[in-house]
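Q: I'm writing up a methods section and want to include an example of the input and output format. Could you take the sequence below and give the corresponding predicted structure tokens, formatted cleanly so I can copy it straight into the document?
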Amino acid sequence: MEQPPLGPVEALERIAFLLERDLAPTYRVKAFRTAADAVAALPEGEPARRVADGTLEQVKGLGPKTATVVREALAGRVPAYLAPLEAKAAGWPPVAGGATLRAALRGDCHLHSDWSDGGSPIEAMARTAMALGHEWAALTDHSPRLTVARGLTADRLRAQLDVVAELNERLPSSFRLLTGIECDILDDGSLDQSVELLERVDVVVASVHSKLRMGRAEMTRRMVAAVASPHVDILGHCTGRLLGGGEHRNEGKPRPESEFDPDMVFAACAAYGTAVEINSRPERLDPPRRLLRQAVDAGVLFAIDTDAHAPGQLDWQIYGCARAEECGVPADRVINTWPAPRLLHWTGAS
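A: Here is the clean output for your methods example:
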């Protein structure tokens, strides 16, 4: 059955979503999201009136390209900017496998908002996760030491907890946004946030973001100390690698894997009940297959996460699911398949 044409706001948001999913430059995406917000804020009937009198581009937030999308959508046509994106999207997902596991997922444990280095407000991330079929998602903005990513100070994190609580009052009861943090693992394995706040949030992802070239023995001790913490739920993107070349890969210089003893780290994860993240970002795909298979053999739990920094990137879980199926990850060991109450009981937040 043919879908009805999108309205101007929906068309602008759809373009932004597809651009984000394809890792388009942030400035390009922002133009369409800004335009969508501008049009949504206009009184009913005003976009059509402005098209008729030629004043559409006078609306703050609209430029020539976005105004053209609005005009074409109001005329009942598929905007010319959207058409090739939809044609490309017809081939989604661009990986083989993963569909069965993806259908079993109920949530995403790792996503960012514009409170740190994400590109969209918290509510936009939550509503997109809900639209993709999730029952829950965990907001995990960065911790304070990562200043380049506008990591949240203790006071900003406390304020964010209040914002999430208020948002959950407005969201449908079928979906819940969980509180969380992606906490830096410091050089000695300690965590970059106060114990009081680590105990208050629902989900803690701990990741190494600095001194990635640390010696193997030192890095192993650092990671084992972190995953042994009672406050850590998930070990994020464990090798820290960045891939180069090909579609959806890192545009900058590739970054090699950090060196550590995977036997010791994964054994610690299994012993302390810390999940190993299967990071679905296409420029990370971390851990590599050989380590993912090793983690399966170690008996760990897994979290298949997007590490999304924009709404469209929340659709990336299929990449992690495909790799998980390929490497023999049992679905019953993937914490994203759990309903929120079970997850929160496991993290100690319930």
